[in-house]
Design brief:
Blueprint (H helix, E strand, L loop, with lengths): L2 H8 L4 H11 L4 E4 L4 H12 L5 E5 L6 H14 L4 E3 L3 H11 L8 H20 L4 E3 L8 H4 L5 E3 L4 E4 L7 H10 L50
Parallel strand pairs: 1-2, 1-4, 2-3, 4-6
Antiparallel strand pairs: 5-6
Helix pairs in contact: 3-8
Length: about 230
């Protein structure tokens, strides 16, 4: 894949324009994954408002906050567009819960990654199968791991191009866009949750803490990825 050519094609374009360019580059083979956070709501708005031919999907782990389901429903009501759902394999969840109980992820990093693999990674693999481009809501300033990402980049694991249209945006720019277009957003953001995942694995961040400090807060910061973006 000629990433340099893609970078040149979107040079100088806005995030919205770049999404349109990627949709043209990968017709019928481009998807966007949303977890209904600030960034994802911005991208969803850009896709749905412009009727871009980009499929939107989400991973329902079964352990989300009620507030996340609420903003999900509000998003469907607002745009009248489908959001595809990928859930974990029931047999795998049943086996994990039977053998290790509902909170095994607190006991070790290995257990936590096992839970993420069942509830998030395997469903994602199904969602991305046969696709050529994956759009995400990643921003460079979200974590130390993410500042070094290329954009667009080649995802060797899924054998497709990943593009992060808001990569260079600041959090304030994201919030301003949400306000300007009155986009539905998760009310947990107003309660100290800048990054929202599964309910048992997410807490509010304290003043001065890193953006993703509330995710898997019992682990060392350098290890805080679930396997979706590696």
């Amino acid at each position: 894949m000629d990433l340099s050519g893609l970078k040149k094609k979107i040079e100088g374009l806005s995030a919205e324009e770049a999404l349109g360019a990627f949709a043209e580059e990968f017709p019928g083979k481009i998807v966007f994954s949303t977890s209904f956070g600030w960034e994802d709501q911005v991208i969803t708005h850009m896709i749905f408002k412009n009727d871009l031919p980009i499929r939107v999907f989400t991973l329902d782990t079964g352990r989300m906050f009620n507030e996340t389901y609420h903003v999900w429903n509000r998003t469907i009501d607002r745009y009248k567009k489908p959001i595809e759902v990928y859930s974990p394999q029931a047999a795998d969840v049943e086996k994990l819960m039977t053998e290790k109980g509902p909170y095994s992820f607190y006991e070790s990093i290995e257990n936590r990654k096992e839970c993420c693999a069942i509830r998030k990674v395997e469903p994602l693999n199904r969602a991305l199968k046969g696709q050529q481009c994956w759009i995400t809501g990643i921003r460079g300033e979200q974590s130390a791991n993410r500042t070094t990402m290329e954009n667009p980049e080649w995802d060797a694991g899924h054998e497709l191009v990943k593009y992060h249209p808001l990569f260079s945006w600041t959090l304030e720019e994201v919030k301003e866009y949400v306000r300007r277009f009155n986009i539905p957003y998760n009310p947990l953001h107003d309660k100290g949750f800048p990054s929202i995942g599964c309910q048992p694995c997410t807490r509010a961040v304290l003043e001065g803490e890193d953006f993703r400090a509330g995710r898997w807060w019992w682990e060392h910061a350098s290890r805080k990825e679930c396997g979706l973006h590696v």
